[in-house]
Automatic annotation (TrEMBL):
PROSITE patterns: RESPONSE_REGULATORY
Descriptive protein name: Response regulator receiver protein
Domain Response regulatory stretches: 10-129
Domain of life: Bacteria
InterPro entries hit by this protein: CheY-like_superfamily, Sig_transdc_resp-reg_receiver
Length: 329
């Protein structure tokens, strides 16, 4: 096992509370890191990440009035820095389970609850160096796969992503030399899976709305459908896939039209579904989303069963969270 030299790795550190910023910086220094870029301003922190591409990001996520989690998700989506697979650790003074789950769902590699010892922090960092988890990609999550093996569907895609922190601290020049190509390849894999998942999410929602039984049981979460269509368009725009982008723009226009009651017809729901399928096909050079049909059918069947079992008990909105939970099995 290669020797670890933390002096080789750059760290970008964020905490809006100066005393906590100094405490964390001291802990990182004690571990062995020397190139530590510290920030208490979120915009300056994001700017530093964008310009310097650190090997490790450490950020406090529980400061009042400062929500860092959207930026963490943007990093994972490749909107902030060239390497969306950078190792990221969040710290938190809040132990509340809901808050910690939200932090984890941002795509960070780890969440460490304060107060913590230097030895504990080093142990968690070493784990990320030696045994980093592969990533999983859904319509609204890109990050480490934390599912238990017993609960993981056999066809659930996982992506082995570059561990540039490990390559850096171990001085693996060969891995670092091929890192750019490795990152680009992994980015394409993640991008393709994200486009597929976003398209599938709309297909599932439209199939349920086109079915009179389930449409009667639960109202469509239109805000989530519009957000998903918008994210699909933005992803395709970032990929530079013009034909797919044009189809996605038509899809976004169509789902926005559902704000008008007279547009909410079975034929228009089917049209939106066809546009989602078409956007993916244009992106995937003609490959049909039919390879995902079993997954779509299972998700629709699961949601239909849930919705029909609620019939007569108030129904409810078909939320994006419900769609993702069902898709995850």
């Amino acid at each position: 096992m290669a020797e670890v030299d933390y002096t080789k790795a750059s760290v970008c550190l964020f905490d809006p509370v100066h005393v906590n910023l100094r405490t964390t910086r001291y802990a990182l220094h004690e571990i062995g890191f020397r190139e530590i870029d510290s920030h208490s301003n979120l915009k300056e922190f994001e700017k530093a990440i964008r310009e310097n591409s650190p090997a490790l990001i450490v950020a406090e996520c529980a400061s009042p009035g400062v929500d860092i989690l959207p930026m963490i998700r943007n990093v994972r989506q490749g909107k902030v820095m060239p390497n969306p697979f950078v190792t990221m650790i969040l710290t938190s003074w809040i132990r509340d389970g809901a808050h910690v789950r939200r932090a984890i769902s941002s795509g960070a590699d780890d969440v460490i609850v304060r107060p913590f010892s230097t030895a504990f922090a080093e142990e968690r960092i070493r784990t990320l160096i030696r045994s980093r988890k592969p990533f999983v990609v859904t319509s609204d999550y890109i990050g480490p796969d934390r599912r238990e093996d017993s609960k993981r569907p056999s066809d659930a895609p996982v992506v082995r992503v570059p561990n540039t922190l490990q390559a850096t601290v171990e001085g693996d020049e060969e891995a670092l030399a091929r890192a750019k190509g490795w990152i680009n390849e992994a980015r394409k894999t993640v991008e393709s899976e994200r486009v597929r998942r976003l398209a599938m999410r709309i297909v599932v929602a439209m199939e349920l709305q086109a079915d009179p039984a389930t449409a009667r049981t639960a109202a469509m979460d239109l805000a989530d459908v519009i957000r998903t269509a918008r994210e699909l368009r933005e992803t395709l725009e970032g990929a530079g896939r013009i034909e797919a982008l044009q189809v996605a723009e038509a899809l976004l226009e169509q789902v926005r039209a559902f704000k008008r009651k007279d547009e909410c017809s079975a034929s228009n729901f089917r049209l939106a579904k066809e546009l989602a399928v078409g956007a993916y096909a244009a992106y995937a050079n003609g490959e049909s989303i039919e390879r995902s049909q079993d997954e779509i059918d299972k998700t629709v069947a699961t949601l239909r069963k849930r919705l029909l079992s609620r019939d007569g008990h108030g129904g409810g909105a078909l939320s994006g969270a419900t769609l993702n939970t069902a898709a995850a099995g």
